[in-house]
Amino acid sequence: MVFGRSSDNRRPVEPVALKILVAGGFGVGKTTLVGAVSEIRPLRTEEALSEVGRPVDDTAGVEQKTTTTVAMDFGRITLREDLVLYLFGTPGQDRFWFLWDELAQGALGAVVLADTRRLADSFAAVDYFERRGISFTVAVNCFEGAGLFPAETVRTALDLDPGVPLMMCDARERESVKDVLVAVVEHALERVSGERRHATT
Amino acid sequence: MSESTHHAQHPHHFFDAEAGPVVRPYAMTRGRTSSTAHHRLDLIALVVPEPAAHHPVHDQSLSPEHVEIVERCEDTPQSIAELAAGLDLPVGVVRVLVGDLVEDELVHVTRPVPPAELPDVNILREVINGLRAL
């Protein structure tokens, strides 16, 4: 703690904040997922698609979505008085990727939310986390009307490493989203414990 | 020629009414775009008021935004990102204002620990248990 005062007896426990990123293509349900578990209304800057944005934002297959998230979009889960988990939805459009690096720094892990109708939209996020060595879990958002594919088919299509967890979810359902987040943290835990074992032997 | 007629005659000026206030938020920081804090405050850095900050309203050097930041963090420490959203201010402005409060020793800020540097991996188990118990 740079500013922390370890001698300060009145606050023996410094609060710890952790973050998990939620990435995926435009309109895949990132904001919905954050909203399903956040104790605060997801905070964000959301603007209607402008005339400028329209040709860029391909909404084929996601016609219901009329706005897009153009800035940080996040929620908060207070696990304990001194333990807070933040969820950050990464910008869904490639032109906002400059925002990703700051978000990714120090992240516990990431969820790549995928839509089997537009699986290719997940490639960029998978690639981003692989390159930066950030542990991630792929969650297939099972939209109504989206064909259900076996997990192995999706895994092959995304060319995932065997160690990357992949699961089906419903981004609207709190329990389902909780399961996804647990998987992300478990994956991060395995990785951190593995590195420590390696370091001590 | 007044400013307004100047703008009316140049409708394609790079900013217009729809661009929103492009300068005003930084008036709160007296034009500063970075604080004297040694490092950039992380989006999830938590702002924790110091006991001395209980009545910041009496400090004449503080702006209403400074006071509001301290008040918002009094019961529950809040992150830079939450403060920016709550105050409807750009993250950059909140970083400067929080930097001032750190300087004045009215708050301190927790530095987020990257997972690989966590002193105790049990904290991740606590996160898992906490999520399951939600």
Automatic annotation (TrEMBL), chain A:
SUPFAM superfamilies: P-loop containing nucleoside triphosphate hydrolases. The keyword Membrane does not apply. Keywords: ATP-binding, GTP-binding, Hydrolase, Nucleotide-binding. Gene3D superfamilies: P-loop containing nucleotide triphosphate hydrolases. GO terms for molecular function: ATP binding; GTP binding; hydrolase activity. Transmembrane segments: none annotated. Pfam families: ATP_bind_1 (PF03029). The keyword ATP-binding applies. Signal peptide: none annotated. Belongs to the GPN-loop GTPase family. This is ATP-binding protein.
TrEMBL record, chain B:
InterPro entries: DUF742 (IPR007995). It comes from the Bacteria. This is DUF742 domain-containing protein. It comes from Streptomyces jumonjinensis.
